[in-house]
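Researcher: Good morning. I'm working through a list of sequences from a screen, and I'd like to move beyond sequence-only analysis. For each chain I'm collecting a predicted structure so we can compare shapes side by side. This is the next one on the list. No need for commentary yet; just the structure.
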Amino acid sequence: MLLKRTLAGAGLALASLSSLYTPSTARACGGFFCNNSQPVNQAAERIVFSTADDGSVTAIIEVQYQGEAEDFAWMLPVAGTPEVGVSSTAALDRLQAATNPSYRLTTVVEGECDTDDFDRFGFPNASAGAPDAGASAPDDDEPEVSVLDAGSVGPYDYITIAVEPGPDSAAAALEWLREQGFDVDDFGGDLLREYLDAGMNLVAFRLTKGAGAGEIRPVRLSFGQGLPAIPIRPTAVAANEDMGVLVWVLGEARAVPANYRDLELNEAAINWLSPGSNYNSVVTRAANEAGGHGFVTELAGEAAPLAERIYSASENERWLAFRDEDWAGREDEFLQRLLFSERWLSTLDGMQEAFLLLKPSEEIYPGLRDEDWQSCPSCYFRGGDEALVTLAQIEAFLSEVDTEIIPAMRDLRSLFTGGRYVTRLYTTMSPHEMTLDPVFDFNPNLEDYSNVHRATRFIECSSRYRRNQAPWRVELASGDVVRGAGNNWPLSASDDFPAAAVVRRVGSEGFGTIIADNRSTIDSAISERNDEIDAMVAIGDIDGDGEIEITGCSAGGSAPVGAFFLLTAMVFVRRRRH
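Model: Good morning. Structure tokens for this chain:
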């Protein structure tokens, strides 16, 4: 069933200059603005978009920052006046781990090598963070700034403002925010003006007085109806080269990058012997081949199974049972239970701050510093009649966890229930490529896509080789066969060996239009390399480490966004000894 799309003007405006789409969009991500002496670390973006049945959009946006708490400021263009809340880094970590691409290589040993020295084969087993709510009094020549919403959530103070369009709108907004105590600079003014002139507003965050940079949590924004979109252009102010952008989009069908290209990777360019070593570089090169405007679909399917991975029903039951126990007269037992049998709670956002509610009093431990208590509470257990914590402290702690920490886990879980469909998309971008805001639409014609990729390697043993030296062939799901030897992957993405097998333009209907089809080029390159390897094997041109001497045969690359698991199953096909 086709999803309804809301036309521009029905509550959310599209600030992108793309002429392809007129539907309204809900925007997230945005640019970081901070003190120049403490640039923001924005190595990767993680965003979850959820589109409800009524077309409204919820965005969970990870906020990353390195620097002093008083220098922190984060803002982004938004449509309308979104409802503001906080989410959980721990929940995003669990979601990412559950959806990471997995490259599983099954190894079959054919024949019998010179020795069964299994350990020398070297199988890889590694895997591939309240302002004044009044309106400003503008000068006659300055655009008017109006406050639409303000408040405090989690560790943040926030404010949503509207700015009268005009040539000085961005400068007026930044100056007004500085006057309100937000540490923003002038960078990105020209880009911000485009959003403001398109009728969008700004939401700005700063840390509440007394909050530390370590308390930063993802932000949750609830919009009206529209399509999910990322205002990536202001991000270029503080982005690193080849910054990762990882997006999950929930809706009734598979999501597609509406104004970006859909990239199908050349799996022969991925080092299947150690996929984590070059997966990210293959994605980067594939995106570059699409002009820097392309996303790889890493997963598409039913969302419900992921709900349990984010926050399981058993964890929730365990928390409720722990919360509801009668701890009167059992205060030290409570602390021991919390530190040991309920240790899983310590991984959740906000727990470190909540744990200060259990810090022993001055009478019990005079001069005990917060950081010492947080780093080693078990160091302060001491026997005797006097309990380390009081019942009042326990009740305050349980209330804090129950109202400020657990709900964020339940909230992200809830987005994945109710028959939702999830698509995970990934790309990398450099600042010069951040010229077009990605918009995501839905296409019910497209099939599921698994994040699990499989291939089989056949080691061609003979008495000439030890197993770690023997030639092998890897049969990929595409039907391609890659030949090699030892622990060396013989192919890498290059100008002659594209990282993208297929580049498509995909909309909300049909199966897309192929923009570039590199499969024949890839097949020819694989065949040519296989012939070279066969020739070297035939004359025994393999070095002592079992590596074929080929220039540039192994692709390096930065570590991928997440862990990529290489599961190697050994199947021995032996000849009987006589």
